Amino acid sequence: xxTGKNQPAETPHEPPAAGRPKPEGRNPEALALANRxxxxxxxxxxxxxxxxxxxxxxxxRLSALSVLVFGGPKTLGxxxxxxxxxxxxxxxxxxxxxxxxxVAITADPGDARRMRIRATAKGTRLLHKxxxxxxxxxAAHLDSLSPQELAELGASVEILxxxxxxxx
Amino acid sequence: xxTGKNQPAETPHEPPAAGRPKPEGRNPEALALANRxxxxxxxxxxxxxxxxxxxxxxxxRLSALSVLVFGGPKTLGxxxxxxxxxxxxxxxxxxxxxxxxxVAITADPGDARRMRIRATAKGTRLLHKxxxxxxxxxAAHLDSLSPQELAELGASVEILxxxxxxxx
DNA sequence: CATATTAGTTAGCATAGCTAACTATAATTT
DNA sequence: AAATTATAGTTAGCTATGCTAACTAATATG
Lengths: 168, 168
Fold this sequence. Notes:
- Two copies of one chain form a homodimer.
- By secondary structure, chain A is mainly alpha-helical.
- The first copy, chain A, is built from six helices and two strands.
- Chains A and B meet through helix 1, helix 2, helix 3, helix 5 and helix 6 of A and helix 1, helix 2, helix 3, helix 5 and helix 6 of B.
C-alpha cells in the first residue's frame, strides 16, 4: 500500500512553520503555533481513527457515548451541545447507539418532551474497549518519548485543555 | 457543554486521567496522556472546523489542497497516501476540487495512467484565506496564554510532529 | 384558552469514508 | 510478439456525519 517511496521528510500541512516573526496584527508566535497545532491535531486523529472502526461504531457515536459514560445521563439537547452538533445530527447518532443497545432512553418525568439518554453496561464496556484500542496505539508511540518529553507534553495538554474549556 | 456550573470538573472525554500508576503492560503515564491528548485533539478540531465551512469547501478538500499547495503537484495515488485515504475517496475529493477550479489536472507525460494534480492560483488563494480564518480563531485564543505557556506548547507540538512523522 | 417557545424528529441535501468491480495503460513473461 | 500480470484511477453502491427547513408534540405564557 503506502510504499514509503518518497523523500525522507515531507510532512504535508507543514506550512512556513519557520520560527521567524511576521507581523500580522497579532502575536505572530501564536499564529505560527496555531498552524502547527492544527496540523498536528489533524494528523494525530487520522492515525488514531483507524482503530476506532474496530469497534464497529463511528467516531461521532463513540464520542457521544464517551460523554454519557463519563458525564452521566443527558438529554438529547445537552448531548448535542456537548458535541457541538445540531439536534438532528445528534438525534441520528443516538438512534444508532440505541439500535446497537449501547444507550437506553427513558422519558423525562416532568417533561414529556425531553428524553434521558444513558449508557448501558454494554455501551460502557464497548467504550472502554474502543478507547483501549485507540489509545493503546497512541500510547505505544508516546512510550518512545523520554520522560522529559512526556512531562512536557502532559503539561501542554493541560494548558490546551483549559484553553478549550474557556472557548465558547 | 451545558453550563459548567454544576460539578467542579466534568469535561467530557476526560476519563479517569488519574495521575497514579496502574500497571497495564506499558507506561501508565503514556496511557493517561494518550487519553487526554486524544480528547484535546478532538475538541480542538471541532472548534476550528467551524471556520472551515466559511470557505465553501469541506475539510477533506482543504486538507488535500493544502498538500498540493505546500508540497507541490502530486499524482492521485500520492495524494491519497499523503492523506491516508483510499484512492476512490481521493478521486472524489479531487473531482470536487477540480469542479471548483481549485486544482488543475494534466496528463503525466510518459505514463498515461497517471495524472498530475496541481493547485491553481485560485486554489492557493482560497487555501490561504481558509487557513487564516481557521487559524485566526485559534491564534486569538492562544494569544491569551503567557509567553512561557506558548513556548511550552510550541515545544510539545514539535515533539508531536516528529512522533507522527515516524508513525506508519 | 390562544399563542409562543422548546424538544425532538423527519426529509432531503452534501461531504467523506469504505469495498468491489471495472477500464485503461504499462510492465513482464513466455 | 502475444499473453499475462500489475498498476493507476474510476464507477457504483453502501454507511456515517454534518447541515437546514419544515414538521409534531408538549410546555409555558399571555
